[in-house]
Amino acid sequence: MPYWLELMLNSAAPLLWAALVFTVPLTLLSFALGLTLGFVVALIRLFGPKPLVAVVRFYVWIIRGTPLLVQLFLIFYGLPSIGIVLDAFPAALIGFTLNVGAYTSEIVRAVIGSIPNGQWEASYSIGMTWQQALRRTVLPQALRVAVPPLSNSFISLVKDTSLAAAVTVPELFQAAQRIVATSYEPLIIYIEAALIYLALSSVLSALQVRLERHFGRYGGFVKASS
User: Fold this and answer.
1) How high does pLDDT run on average in the chain?
2) Within 10 A of 38 (CB to CB), how many other CB atoms are there?
3) For the chain, first and last CA: distance in Å?
4) Which positions carry the signal peptide feature in this UniProt record (predicted)?
5) What is the rounded distance in angstroms from the CA atom of residue 101 to the CA atom of residue 42?
6) From 194's CA, which of 40, 63, 186, 201 has a CA 20 to 30 Å away?
């Protein structure tokens, strides 16, 4: 068996374990919390009082205007200087959640804003409250439009979690770094790590296409090409 193949086979288990135990949970938790935060921020931007609008706009401006890696460093390495010490995983989770929240808030704000005012007026005309109109009329239509950009954000987040290695989270990329430190074969190991990221992204892209086709049956967006 060639040396490079034997090395890749021996490295597969620790890399896949790191992906399963750290990369996947970090991605899922960050996206779920970030999307929830983004939804709240979007509603405040669209319907909130001016003081709150100013606060969330400042938050979005800061997060979108600074690199994610810098944000992670500020949380993990910077906050201890003012007495706030976080473990690596919670620090990464907070950083990714804040980042996802800022970007998804713009997506949610755009798709809700794209729903014609007539949909709101029609809902009010049959006696719905604002909350009912939002939940029963506007959000179902907005969801069909939001699926492609939100799916893209989720797939990007899977790859962005590699930055958590910089704050000592033992996820997939840091596991690869540790193997490189002992095997002295960076090309082989990093190619293997890249292939695992590629496999995860490919599965998610396939699921995205199926989801878009499902919503496309009900007059949503044009289904994506595979």
Assistant:
1) 92
2) 25
3) 36
4) none
5) 9
6) 63
